[in-house]
C-alpha cells in the first residue's frame, strides 16, 4: 500500500501536446520521458458498492502486463469519511494497493489489508464484480525535480467509454513522488503562467462513473462547519476556508451546465461565504494574500451576480405575475427580453469560471492554505496562534452590536440604509454559522433560524429593489430592438414595478416580528 498524492490539470489538446517543449519543463526535467499506451477496465458490483465507499478498482494493461489497482479514501472504507485531505482543493490524496495480475479479472486476495478483506467479505464484493467502464489513453510520463521535491508529470490523452457513451480525456497529472504537497501547487502555478488549463477536481474513475450512470454533478449546499474548541484561530480559518472552496468547486459544473439555477446560486453563495471569512479573520491575515483574495473574489462574485439577478427575475418575479394576470399579454415581451439578458449573463458567468483568472485564484488560495502562506507575522501571527473561542466571541459581539444599533431604527431607515442593514445582518449570520459548532447546538440552532428569518425579509426587499433596475434595462432593450418605448411595454413595466413595490412592503411588514424574535432570543455564544 502506498499513498498517492496528485493534482490534475485539464488542457486543450493542442496545449497539452506543446507542453513538453516548454522551457520550464526542459529545465526541471531529470530524465527521459516514457511513452506508453494504457488500457484500463474499472470493476464494481451492479449496485456500485465500491463507488459508494469512495473506492475505484481497475485492471490496467500497461504494455508489459496486467496490473490491478485499488484506490481507497485515506479515512478507510466508511462512506464519506469526511477527511478533507482525501480531496483537498483538487489535490487527490488516497491509499493505493497495486499488484501484478495474471489475467484480466480482479483478484481481491492480492489486497493484503485486513480491514478491506473484511469489507469485501461483508459486502459480498468478490462474486459480484463486473466491468463498468474503460479508459484508453496515451501517456507521456516526464520525471521532474522542483526544489526538494520529485514529481512525475503524466500527460494523458484519449477517452473514457461506457457502453455507447464516450468522454474525451486530455489532462496532465502532477504526482508527488517525494517532498511536500505544496510543491504540486507551486509547479502548477509556474505552468499556469505559460499555458492555460483548468484544475480538474474529478478522477478518471469519478468521470467514468458519471458516464456509466449518465448523470451530471448536482448543486451542493455548504456543509456545516465542524470546529473544535481546541483549535487555534489559524486552524479554524483553514478548516472553514477549505469548506468554502469545496462548495465553490462542487458547483462549478452545475453552474457551467446552467440547467438548474441552483448551481450558480450555490457557487455564488460559496464565494460570498469565502469573502465573509476573509473579513472575519482579517486580524490574522498577511496584507498581500488578503488584498489579492479580496479583489479576485469581488471580481468573481460580480461576474456571477448578473446571472443570479436574472434567474431571480425569471423564476420569482415573472411566473407568479403571469399566473395572477393570465390576460396581461404585454408581459410576454418582458419575459422574452429578460431571457435574452439571462442567456448573456450566463455566458459571462461561464467565461469567468473557465477563465485563467479563476484558475489562478484557486491555485493561490490552495497554495496558501497548504503551507500557511496566508498568515502574517508579528501581532497578527499571535492572533492566528491564539485560541479560537474567545476570538469567535469577540467577532460575534462586535458584529451583533453594529447590527442591532442600525436595526433598532429600522422603521425610519431609508432604502440605502436598509441595504446596509441587510449586509450587516448577513455578516452576523455568516460569522454565527462559521462558529456555531464551538457552542451548544441546542442554543445555536434557534438563534441561527432567527437570523435566517431576518435575512429572508431583507432578501425579498433587496430582490425587489434590484428588480427595478432590471425593468429599466428591459425597457431600454425592447425600445432599442423595436420602434421605441411602446404603450404595451410601459404597461408591462408598470405591472412589474407595482408587484415589486408590494413585495418590498410585505418584506418590511414581516421584518417587524422577525426582528422582535431575534431581540428576545438568547445569544448562544455568551455565558449565562
Q: Tags for this entry?
A:
Hypothetical Protein Pfu-838710-001, single chain, globular, 55% helix, CHAD domain, 528 residues, alpha+beta
Descriptive account of the structure:
This protein is α+β, with helices and mostly antiparallel strands and 528 residues long. The chain folds into two domains: 212 residues, Hypothetical Protein Pfu-838710-001, CATH 2.40.320.10; 287 residues, CHAD domain (Alpha solenoid), CATH 1.40.20. 55% of the residues lie in helices and 18% in strands. An eight-stranded antiparallel barrel has the order 1-6-4-3-2-7-8-9. The longest helix has 41 residues.
Task: Tell me the major beta sheet.
Answer: 8 strands, antiparallel, barrel
Distance between the termini: 52 Å
The CATH topology of the largest domain comes to CHAD domain
What's the number of structural domains? 2
Shape: globular
Radius of gyration: 27 Å
- SSE series: EHHEHEEEEHEEEHEHHHHHHHHHHHH
Residue fraction in strands: 15-25%
CATH architecture of the largest domain: Alpha solenoid
Secondary-structure content class:
alpha+beta
Number of helices: 17
Fourth-tier CATH superfamily name of the largest domain: CHAD domain
Helix content: 40-55%
Record the strand order, biggest sheet.
1-6-4-3-2-7-8-9
Mean pLDDT: 91
Report the CATH C-level class of the largest domain. Mainly Alpha
Uncertain segments:
78-86
The total count of strands amounts to 10
Amino acid at each position: 500500500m502506498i499513498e498517492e498524492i496528485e493534482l490534475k490539470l485539464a488542457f486543450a489538446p493542442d496545449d497539452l501536446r506543446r507542453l513538453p517543449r516548454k522551457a520550464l519543463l526542459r529545465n526541471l526535467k531529470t530524465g527521459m520521458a516514457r511513452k506508453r499506451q494504457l488500457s484500463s477496465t474499472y470493476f464494481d458490483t451492479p449496485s456500485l458498492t465500491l463507488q459508494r465507499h469512495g473506492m475505484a478498482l481497475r485492471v490496467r494493461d500497461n504494455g508489459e502486463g496486467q496490473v490491478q489497482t485499488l484506490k481507497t479514501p485515506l479515512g478507510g472504507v466508511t462512506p464519506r469519511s469526511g477527511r478533507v485531505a482525501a480531496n483537498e482543493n483538487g489535490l487527490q490524496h488516497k491509499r493505493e494497493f497495486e499488484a501484478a495480475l495474471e489475467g484480466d479479472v480482479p483478484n481481491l486476495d492480492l489486497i493484503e489489508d485486513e480491514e478491506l478483506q473484511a469489507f469485501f467479505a461483508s459486502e459480498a464484493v468478490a462474486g459480484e464484480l463486473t466491468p463498468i467502464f474503460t479508459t484508453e489513453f496515451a501517456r507521456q510520463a516526464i520525471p521532474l525535480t522542483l526544489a526538494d521535491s520529485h514529481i512525475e508529470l503524466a500527460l494523458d490523452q484519449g477517452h473514457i467509454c461506457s457502453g455507447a457513451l464516450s468522454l474525451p480525456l486530455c489532462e496532465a497529472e502532477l504526482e508527488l513522488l517525494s517532498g511536500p504537497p505544496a510543491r504540486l501547487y507551486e509547479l502548477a502555478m509556474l505552468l499556469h503562467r505559460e499555458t492555460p488549463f483548468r484544475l480538474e477536481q474529478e478522477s478518471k474513475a469519478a468521470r467514468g462513473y458519471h458516464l456509466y450512470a449518465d448523470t451530471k454533478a448536482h448543486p451542493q449546499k455548504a456543509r456545516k462547519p465542524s470546529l473544535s474548541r481546541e483549535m487555534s484561530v489559524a486552524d479554524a480559518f483553514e478548516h472553514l476556508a477549505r469548506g468554502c472552496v469545496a462548495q465553490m468547486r462542487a458547483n462549478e459544473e452545475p453552474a457551467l451546465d446552467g440547467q438548474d439555477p441552483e448551481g450558480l446560486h450555490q457557487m455564488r453563495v460559496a464565494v460570498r461565504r469565502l469573502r465573509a471569512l476573509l473579513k472575519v479573520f482579517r486580524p490574522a491575515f498577511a496584507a498581500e494574500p488578503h488584498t489579492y483574495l479580496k479583489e479576485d473574489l469581488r471580481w468573481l462574485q460580480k461576474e456571477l451576480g448578473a446571472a443570479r439577478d436574472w434567474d431571480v427575475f425569471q423564476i420569482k418575479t415573472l411566473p407568479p405575475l403571469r399566473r395572477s394576470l393570465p390576460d396581461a399579454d404585454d408581459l410576454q415581451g418582458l419575459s422574452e427580453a429578460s431571457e435574452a439578458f439571462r442567456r448573456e449573463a450566463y455566458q459571462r458567468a461561464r467565461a469567468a469560471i473557465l477563465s485563467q483568472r479563476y484558475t489562478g485564484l484557486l491555485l493561490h488560495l490552495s497554495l496558501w492554505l497548504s503551507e500557511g502562506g496566508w498568515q502574517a507575522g508579528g501581532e497578527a501571527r499571535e492572533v492566528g496562534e491564539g485560541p479560537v473561542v474567545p476570538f469567535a466571541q469577540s467577532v460575534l459581539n462586535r458584529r451583533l452590536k453594529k447590527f442591532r444599533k442600525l436595526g433598532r431604527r429600522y422603521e425610519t431607515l431609508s432604502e440605502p440604509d436598509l441595504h446596509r442593514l441587510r449586509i450587516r445582518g448577513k455578516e452576523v449570520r455568516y460569522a454565527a454559522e462559521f462558529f456555531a459548532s464551538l457552542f451548544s447546538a441546542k442554543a445555536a440552532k434557534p438563534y441561527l433560524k432567527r437570523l435566517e428569518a431576518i435575512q429572508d425579509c431583507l432578501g425579498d426587499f433587496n430582490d425587489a429593489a434590484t428588480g427595478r433596475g432590471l425593468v429599466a434595462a428591459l425597457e431600454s432593450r425592447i425600445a432599442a430592438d423595436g420602434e421605441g418605448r411602446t404603450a404595451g411595454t410601459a404597461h408591462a413595466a408598470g405591472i412589474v414595478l407595482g408587484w415589486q413595490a408590494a413585495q418590498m412592503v410585505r418584506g418590511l411588514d414581516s421584518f417587524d416580528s422577525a426582528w422582535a424574535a431575534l431581540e428576545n432570543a438568547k445569544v448562544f455564544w455568551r455565558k449565562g
